[in-house]
Amino acid sequence: MKVAVTGATGLVGGHVAEALRDRGHDVGVLVRRRSTPPDGYRVVRGDIASRADLAELLGGAVGLIHCAAPYSYELSAEELTAAHVRGTRTVLEAAADAGVRRVVITSSSVTCGSSSAPDVVDESHRPGWEYTPAYFQAKADQEDLALTYGAVLGLDVVVACPTVVLGGPDRKLVPSNAVLARYLIDPLRSTFPGGCNVVSATDVGVGHALLLESGQAGSRYLLGGSNLRWRELHEIVSDLAGVPGPNLEMDAGTARAAAAVSDLWSKVSGSPALVTEEETRTVGRYYWYDHSRAAALGYSPMGARPTVALALSWLLASTHLPRWVREGLRPSSEVRTARPLVPRPLTTVVDVPIGKAKRPVS
Amino acid sequence: MAAGGEKGSRVVVARSSDPVSATRRVLDGLALLTTSRAKRRACVAVTLGSAAYVSPAVLSETLAYLAAKGIAQPDVLAVIPQRDRDAGWDVESLSARHDLPFGRLVDAWESVESAQVGDAYVIQGRPVPRAWQQAGIRVLLAPCATDAIDGHVLALDALRSLAPVIAGADPADVVMDLLQTMAPHISLVDAMVTSDGPAGSSVRRPVLTDAVVGSSSAILADLVGGVLLGADPLRPPLIAAVVDLLGLPGDFDVIGDLTPFDRIDYPAEQLLRSTRGAPDDRSVSRVVGAAMADEGVTTTGDDVMITLLRQAIRPWLTATGSEGGPDALAWAGGTAATTAGYVRAWRTTFAKDSVPRRQASLGLDLGSFSARDFEAAETTLRPLLQLIDGLPVDRDGLRWMHVDGAVVFEASRTVLADYDTWIERVDVSKAISMMADYLGGRIVVVARDKQGRTTRQAERNIYLPQPNYIAFSGGQVIDVCKLSVVRHRADSCAIWWRTVRSPNRSALYDDGTVAFSDAGDGRTRIVIRGRQQFTLPAAMQAVDLDLAPEVRDSLTQDAYRRFFLTTLDNFEACYEGRDFAIGSEPDTELPTAGLSRLARVAQGSIKEIVESSARSGDIDGSLRVTVDVDGFTHVTGTRRRS
């Protein structure tokens, strides 16, 4: 099947494109002009705001998975709405114009709400009175638009709701992977009350492919993995990374104070904040989800430990962790062998700081 | 070629109040210019500093001597010490300052070309003065002066100023390269007048010493010059480093009187220690040198920080000992060096990407090693490594033991990468330069096999201090020169190396091997083994950790785990094409230049704001805004009114 993917240079989009290709689809990807496209796909360079670029991407395609949207707690509500809602509208219209039949929209599990108690919720659940960060709201608005406007346009729209997606490669440290990075950088190795559901980016990629192939139009599907308390997650991270911890449990107030310090440091240093005040306002709640509906389609995510091991293997190969943090870790063999190494193209010049001889001496 | 350490060198000391006579006696005594040499092109490099310079009489007599030998038109180059260049001096301004009749002098750096030297030299391909490189006869004229950083500066300091400033390279390496590839045939030290005091090279304090020293060896000229100054001749770090590599000149003649000069005020040891900074960090000494020199004319005010430092330091340099000048200088230098030391230690531990990378010469005379010396890398180490074969491997893939004060270790990992694909991307012969904390160095391939693969090589490796935290106790970089052999087999390859020299004596042993082998099922096995013993800083040597083996072993385990896990990660990064090198590109600028630019920008902004306010508020009177009784606004122009 000829399909198209937006956001293929992102964490989720990259795995979606890979899963589709592995399942035998002819995959075209839309990437920004300055981005390095992934290998092995039909590449269209452009922008999702451009109908012309979208038309080029979608020509002849019967399916589309729209992943392109910022995963950020630092952008304003206006910026998020523009990217998630208006971007999705443009993509849906272009898909309808191009005759695309099925569309999968990447949303988020946060649109299914959370609980104050360790309860597991499914797709029927919605946010209640809890605090809703701008990102959460943008995702909810995106979903609403996709399902209603998609139907108006005559598209079969399926909504994918991934939980906390861990993995790599992650060019920009997304908030989900930042959970791991933040814990490893934190000298106190703090944890906090509440919990989340972690899922591997690899599984989320496969889940999207399943939804494109057989998801029910007009439905939402949670693509989750394991429900864990934050402490349990951090214990796994510690064990796999070979560091002690967690050593301290922060309450919501302390976490917010830490976020304020992190925010201040990011403004001083110019580096992205590892945690935002908005994120810390979700501390104490349980974002636990049931993915039975997707499982009925064949979705079968890996467990929490291999998920974290795989994510750590990518994180250690990135620059998201400062060098002094990486050098202090003792990763387990599970992390070391979590992923096969990817050989560089032989034309790549590796920067080795040596004053090497320019002419061989015989 | 006179490299400085050859047999049969001669040094002549002529003592006379007449510079012409003294110079002539030295040159005649050296008797170096044979007829065949006299036909060659000659170059005379004469030092011209703000406080220490060669007298016109010595130069004139040298030129007259050359002319008498049939060399009528030598190139005469002015050599300005780096400290004076940094302070903004050029040939014209220095000639004018000293009122010297140097009509024929041109700046040595006015015409340059790439150094045509071998792979072992850090100056390879770098600019050098064209006339100096092309000359068949090279004559170096240097003044005699004390120096607040080096103790004293003579011929080798002049040669240093003839060498390119290579960011990240030790000046001693550069000088040694010149000595080995384009050394002066005659080195004269003009000690008719010595500039002494705490910083004679920067603040002129002339003392009549009535001597000229000459030699076919610049090293010998400096050693004898040091004796005449009544100093330890190896006190200047530059001379010490050169002698360490090239050795003391053997079988040389001394002609003349070596009685030390009277009343030389030599810089106090306390001052020298404070101004030098860390042995592997020249930033402090370069800033101090530039700030001590009198302000030049070409870049006045460009480096605000240097100007401010100069204003603080110069009074101390000119003050007498009883006025506390040298003590204040030592205190300030010590404070700067200590601060720089802590910054360096912080970077070493927590900000490795900000540590300047290093450039270096090979530091070995390859002609002195046979193929057997290279092969010994494997034959001497293999039996020792067998000692750890029976030890268990820990969670990190590490095993190690102490053997006679050294650590014999193995670190291993099996990676999910096909062997053939692996060795195409990770060149085992470059394995050492991919190791953790590698700052730079040099690799010279000595032999290759029929497929063009390296089989023997020599290399110099410079790493951050190990373990990193010893930088806080003054630990210096690991600097080692090695001979290596590389084995290539069908399903494995390995490099074996042994350390034959450590220029800064940072390592007693740093021998080892890295092997890649086919582990089957699309996997590659990496094994690093070796023997290491590094020199701890004096502060840490005072603690005998052998008395607390638990602590010692814990520290050893942590250090080896960090280093070799990172090294294994680096191999993986190389395979995947990720950047893994630490450090930043070194800068040839003075460390103060960035701060000064910042200060200028701030100053400019403030000035702009003030001027803007002045214009709008009529502060400078050039514009006048008035409102008449009818409410019309009148603005006067800036034209002067008569």
Put simply, the count of helices of chain B is 20
Largest interface: A-B, 36 and 56 residues
CATH class descriptor name of chain A: Alpha Beta
Shape of chain A: globular
From the helix content, strand content and strand pairing of chain A, which structural class follows? Answer: alpha/beta
pLDDT < 50 stretches of chain A: 348-362
Tally of separate domains of chain A: 1
Number of helices of chain A: 13
Count of domain modules of chain B: 3
Oligomer: heterodimer
Question: What is the CATH H-level superfamily of chain A?
Answer: NAD(P)-binding Rossmann-like Domain
What is the name of the CATH topology of the largest domain in chain B? Rossmann fold
What is the CATH top level name of the largest domain in chain B? Alpha Beta
- Tell me the distance between the termini of chain A: 57 Å
Short descriptors:
heterodimer, A: 362 residues, alpha/beta, Rossmann fold, seven-stranded parallel sheet, three-stranded mixed sheet, 13 helices, 40% helix, globular, disordered C terminus, B: 642 residues, Alpha-D-Glucose-1,6-Bisphosphate, Chain A, domain 4, 20 helices, 22 strands
If you had to describe this structure to a student in words, what would you say it looks like?
The complex is a heterodimer of chains A (362) and B (642). By secondary structure, chain A is α/β, with parallel strands linked by helices. Chain A has a single domain, classed as NAD(P)-binding Rossmann-like Domain (Rossmann fold), CATH 3.40.50.720. Chain A has 13 helices and 14 strands. In chain A, α1 crosses α6, α3 runs parallel beside α4 and α7 crosses α11. Chain A starts with a strand and ends in a 26-residue tail after the last helix. Chain B is an alpha/beta fold. Chain B has 3 domains: 259 residues, 3-Layer(aba) Sandwich (Rossmann fold), CATH 3.40.50; 219 residues, START domain (Alpha-D-Glucose-1,6-Bisphosphate, Chain A, domain 4, 2-Layer Sandwich), CATH 3.30.530.20; 43 residues. Helices cover 35% and strands 24% of the residues of chain B. In chain B, strands 1, 2, 3, 4, 7, 8, 9, 10 and 11 form a 9-stranded mixed sheet that branches. Chain B has a 9-stranded mixed sheet with strand order 12-15-16-17-18-19-20-14-13, sandwiched between helices. At the A-B interface, α12 of A face β12, α17, β15 and α19 of B.
